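Model: Ready when you are.
Researcher: Fold this.
Model:
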Amino acid sequence: MLDKLVKEHIILGIDPGTLYMGYALLRTSGSQVEIIDFGVFDVHKLEDQYARLQKEFFFIQQLIDLHHPTVLAIESQFVDKNPQTMIKIVHAQGVAIAAALSKDIPVVEYSPMKVKMAITGNGHSDKHQVADMLQRFLHIPADKMPKKLDASDALGIAYCHYLQLGMPLREKGAKNWTTFAKQKGLVDKQLTGPNAKLQTAIMMAKKKK
């Protein structure tokens, strides 16, 4: 009954890139979350960088028209050792944001560290660790996991926004992740440190199987 009273959200997650753009769509209602679609939009065969950006712009608009997301969650700018690479990523990010705003879709940004912290509890996790945790959380069959990590990165961004909504914690009356985990009996009261959330997530995933 509670889930029917909670507003449904459709989150479009985007991992911006000028050759491969990761995308993911999640439908959430209260503590319920399901994958609508996720994958990679490949434009690497186009030689002109502006043609690639144009393709990405129209692709995001098509996703919006098809799935009607309530928000775009996108990875924010990061500092790269190669300035040219950083500029290209910023261009792709700007195109994605412009596509969403052209459809009156609100935008939220999350840093790579914020996404990793939300998913694994460690802001320095690698992409494979994030993908593994998402596979556990969302019960994705191994053969359905995409080969390119751009897709799982986008899924992580979307799932990060879902966690920021706080629905699972709010419904259980918990103030934070640790309190929620203790209420569920998933962690020892003495469990602390940077890996506590990661260990908790693994235990939750095992309990769901």
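Researcher: Now this one.
Model:
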Amino acid sequence: MKILNRWNVLILVFALWSSASLASELRGFSVTGECLKTLIPDRGAFQFNLESLEAQPGIAIKKSTEAYNQLKERVQKLKLKNALIETTDFSVYEEFDWNNNQRKSKGFRARMGMRVETSELARLGELIQLGADLKIKNMSGPENFVSMEMRQKEHESCLETALKNAKDKAEKLAVAGNVKLGPVTSVVEGDAVVVDPVPSFRGMAKMEMASSADAAPQVDPRSEKMRVTLRAVYSIK
């Protein structure tokens, strides 16, 4: 009698498991359920870049830091809901001009970046206006996006809808096949996929805008669609 080695045993076990799984599906219906949801962005952000060019690096750092602190204080006074202020960049470097192949120092440029996030999307325009009031020349945004917390919450709430959709399909198949549908025997969750994603709005704010607070622009968020799928197997009675 030939003795099976360990690999042959593993292959045999896998083959038996695959055959049992296939036989189980052949005795029922394997269907895909899905849920499509529209997600409205719940977070917004705006980027400020503060720069100072001076003859000495220490002076450049001091001025850009003062401008950063002034901006931070003004942002905090807005009392935006769920606000998050993040320093995104800090650098100091010497700039040069070239003339007749000769390099001449222009001075030292200090740069600090600030990113402000909030859940009050309707007030993002106030950040744009604030940058204009403070004569900040380099600003970008606003950016609207769906937070990870909301995406996870909507994904989980969509699973029940997807399973119901799968059951509806299985029941229709059972009627068409003139059989009685049994209970679900297995469910495999799929990934959430963004369908036809819309890029978040990004613009370049300009200093030339009016200094009046009444001129703060209104920024409307754009939605995205998320599809959640799962695979379910229903038995036949």
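Researcher: Key takeaway?
Model: Helices lie at 6-26, 57-78, 124-133, 148-176.
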